[in-house]
Write a structure and sequence with these properties.
The protein is an alpha+beta fold and 793 residues long. A hairpin with a 5-residue loop joins strand 30 (654-661) and strand 31. The termini are far apart.
């Protein structure tokens, strides 16, 4: 039989639901409701086995299911659920290995009628924004399909404790809960706008009973229920013939409604694939063997993950579950469906970045690993990922063993290769050890967390479209563009009309550089090259190549610098406390130039002087006084001036370079007139920038970026990046060209600034098309401020 996902085999009707996003309800206003079913005592199955002479008939009972329900109740209480909102359906609570949480009472027994009634009450009670948790823990099986035909011809069923046997006239196991019923309950809850978290901790296989802790498995469960093998085979054959050569069908009742506006979301945790059993084991593994208790593997480790406040999303919880399965060494594999990247119970908390998994094969030396996340999860080439062992003996604490760099990315996976990060060398990959220093040769899941985002520094430039009757100058410009060799600068030339980061176009004898999305969009023009200037040159073709090459070099360099600082600003170091930019206390003020200032496009009135030992100049305003919030895009005009006061609140010195990246690809440098670049602990630096009169179209974005590097007392020369200043892309009268990089043996780039300088040089020179930023923890950071520049009213 072809292997399918657990979700598709258990709830075929629900496969259409997972495409809709899980709505994260507001934590303060929403409620958490749950129905937790733990079916443990299967007296009828036990009697059938005893009657057949089985001396271990009691193994069919699942003490772990009762424990599962209580554990999940404890986890939900720890996440803020109210005891009165938990419906607990178990038998013989006094036989459980865990006490009931305070205020939680047993609501009934896991019989069909009480499960149905609880689900119906749940659907009636839920409202928009609520989080609804459903746990079914116990035995499961399959029976020939009822109603709409599924691809394998079988329905998945959950077995309540009052189940009966197969009734041939009704074609069902008496009192069983059928997958379509569960689908209807979930749909009714989602229709109210509530989100559903479904946990199925039971077998989906038809040929083995759920493994009991310490006991044998392999019981023919269908035979015990009286389901004729001939009926199962006939249903499978009918389905196979029906779907031969056709796409798989889904339950239309659910699929039609799956995308309705206002519906709640859906996440599912499944204990095993359809053709394997769901194991009950003694655990958790970090307890001494004598203290371990029977539980379903899925629920045991999911409950532990939910009870950990550092687990923020369902994907992180799924990661912890996978690690638990690996530690228990069970043959089954958990499966997950839905929008796993949403916050647990609608509350994001204060945890760190989302976690994924990496499967480490049985080896002590590796050259690559596969990350269980890719482009669809926002993973990019050049990103740095930390790989951790979950130390179950310490209650699930994570310890980083290795760091990997994303070398390549597909839609759902990424290839990691060895890299050094912080104080962990890349050589760790050649001798992988546990957090305690022991040999680590066995297979295991590692937790992967994004440490540094990757940034893409490769840009594309679209060739200008050739006019129907090109002029001599236009033909020369086309030839010059083709001869530039942009690949050396880390860029690619695209055909005319292709989507690209920058678009070249002709306006008569002007070659215009536009930033996408399209020419003519306000703020998209970088600059213009007058092709007529080549007429008087001794070598017109060479002159044309130089002009166009210089303009594109400035454009690409400014674009790379902008992307670099944006990425650094969005993704600081592994530890926010290690980001040197985070130690700066910043005050900002604005001076608005008088009406008419800069309208000639050339000059601005002098802005007030700002010195470190004085207050902000008179006539300036703070963002708060202007009513600006962090969500606003502040609007300024040419000749307006921004002032910054930066105080170093750290115990170590920092080197600060202020840069202004302008819409014309010009990059300006700001330096404190008193302290220069280095700010010692407790000292204050002041910076000011007056925006130049705009050339080209408006409005456009201008960025002010402070590059902050932790200073090295052993290096007397400061880490100063003022050499990155350059003129506008098409300002050929400007005396300052593109600055050279300052890597190699330059003294300022030694010590702690060395790694950042190497990375910066590689990006700006085109050697690096993708990479991580701030690769040395605590070495560098960025403060970024963006303004919308528009013509003065």
């Amino acid at each position: 039989m072809t292997r399918k996902t657990a979700m598709s085999r258990l709830l075929v009707a629900l496969t259409a639901l997972v495409a809709s996003a899980l709505v994260a309800g507001p934590a303060a206003a929403s409620e958490v409701y749950s129905v937790l079913v733990g079916a443990s005592d299967y007296g009828r199955l036990e009697k059938a086995l005893r009657d057949a002479g089985d001396t271990q008939a009691d193994r069919v009972n699942l003490k772990g299911a009762r424990n599962d329900a209580i554990l999940m109740a404890q986890a939900l209480i720890s996440r803020g659920a109210k005891a009165g909102n938990i419906t607990l359906l178990i038998e013989n609570a006094e036989q459980a290995d865990y006490p009931l949480p305070a205020g939680v009472k047993v609501s009934g027994t896991p019989t069909r009628s009480q499960i149905v009634a609880a689900m119906e009450r749940l659907a009636a009670r839920a409202s928009a924004g609520d989080q609804v948790v459903i746990l079914l823990s116990g035995h499961g099986s399959q029976q020939p399909q009822q109603g709409t035909l599924e691809a394998d011809g079988l329905d998945e069923i959950f077995i309540p404790v009052d189940h009966g046997l197969w009734t041939g006239g009704k074609d069902r196991v008496e009192n069983a809960i059928v997958d379509d019923e569960v689908a209807d309950w979930i749909e009714a809850i989602r229709a109210k706008g509530a989100d559903v978290i479904f946990i199925g901790d039971f077998c989906h296989s038809g040929d083995s009973v759920r493994g009991a802790a310490g006991g044998p498995a392999g019981i023919d469960f269908r035979r015990l229920l009286g389901i004729p093998k001939a009926d199962v085979d006939a249903a499978a054959t009918t389905a196979m013939e029906t779907f031969r050569g056709k796409p798989r069908q889904r339950d239309s009742r659910v699929e039609v409604a799956a995308g309705s506006a206002g519906k709640g979301g859906f996440v599912a945790f499944m204990a095993a694939a359809a053709d394997t059993r769901a194991d009950q084991v003694l655990g958790p593994v970090y307890l001494p063997r004598a203290e371990r208790k029977p539980n379903g593997v899925l629920t045991m480790y999911l409950a532990a993950a939910l009870a950990d406040p550092s687990v923020r999303t369902y994907r992180e919880a799924a990661t912890r579950v996978q690690v638990g399965y690996s530690a228990q060494n069970v043959p089954s594999t958990p499966e997950f469906e839905g929008d796993l990247d949403t916050p647990v119970l609608g509350n994001a908390g204060d945890a760190a970045s989302t976690a994924w998994t990496v499967f480490k094969p049985q080896a002590t030396s590796l050259t690559s690993l596969t990350l269980n996340a890719g482009a669809l999860q926002g993973v990019t080439e050049g990103a740095i990922v930390g790989l951790s062992e979950v130390q179950l003996a310490q209650g699930g604490k994570e310890t980083v063993l290795l760091y990997g760099r994303v070398e390549s990315v597909s839609a759902g996976t990424a290839r990691l290769v060895p890299t050094a990060y912080g104080d962990v060398p890349a050589e760790r990959w050649s001798d992988i050890r546990t957090a305690s220093g022991g040999r680590f040769g066995w297979s295991a899941y590692l937790v992967a967390r994004l440490v540094q985002n990757g940034a893409q520094f490769g840009f594309e430039v679209a060739r200008p479209a050739a006019p129907a009757a090109p002029t001599t100058r236009q033909r020369a410009a086309l030839a010059a563009v083709d001869a530039l060799g942009l690949e050396a600068a880390g860029a690619k030339l695209r055909p005319a009309g292709a989507a690209a980061d920058y678009i070249l176009r002709f306006e008569g004898d002007m070659l215009v550089i536009n930033q996408s999305p399209a020419a003519g969009v306000a703020g998209s023009e970088i600059g213009r090259i007058d092709l007529r200037d080549s007429d008087s040159a001794r070598d017109p073709a060479g002159f044309m190549r130089q002009r166009i090459g210089d303009a594109l070099s400035h454009t690409l360099r400014a674009a790379k610098l902008r992307r670099l600082v944006e990425t650094m600003n969005a993704a600081p170091g592994q530890d926010a406390g290690a980001d040197p930019a985070a130690t700066l206390v910043v005050e900002t003020r604005i001076w608005f130039a008088p009406a008419g200032a800069g309208q000639d496009g050339k000059t601005c009135p002098a802005a007030p002087l700002f010195l470190a030992d004085r207050a902000f100049p008179a006539g300036t305003s703070s963002p708060a006084e202007l009513g600006w919030t962090s969500a606003d895009s502040p609007k300024l005009s040419p000749c307006d001036t921004v002032y910054f006061r930066l105080r170093n609140g750290a115990a170590t010195g920092v080197d600060v370079t202020g840069l202004v990246i302008q819409p014309t690809a010009a990059v300006g440098s700001m330096t404190d007139p008193v302290y220069g670049v280095r700010l010692e602990p407790g000292s204050t630096g002041v910076y000011a920038w007056q925006f130049d009169p705009m050339t080209g179209q408006s409005p456009a974005i201008s960025d002010v970026a402070f590059i902050v590097v932790q200073s090295d007392p052993a290096v007397r020369i400061h880490a100063d990046y003022a050499y990155l200043a350059q003129c506008a892309a098409t300002d050929f009268s400007c005396a300052t060209g593109v600055g050279t990089t300052r890597g190699g043996d330059q003294p300022f780039a030694q010590g702690r600034a060395r790694g950042f300088a190497d990375m910066l040089d590689g990006v700006l020179e085109g050697r690096t098309r993708s990479g991580a930023v701030g690769q040395a923890v605590g070495s560098s950071g960025v403060l970024l401020y963006s303004w919308v520049l528009e013509p003065r009213p």
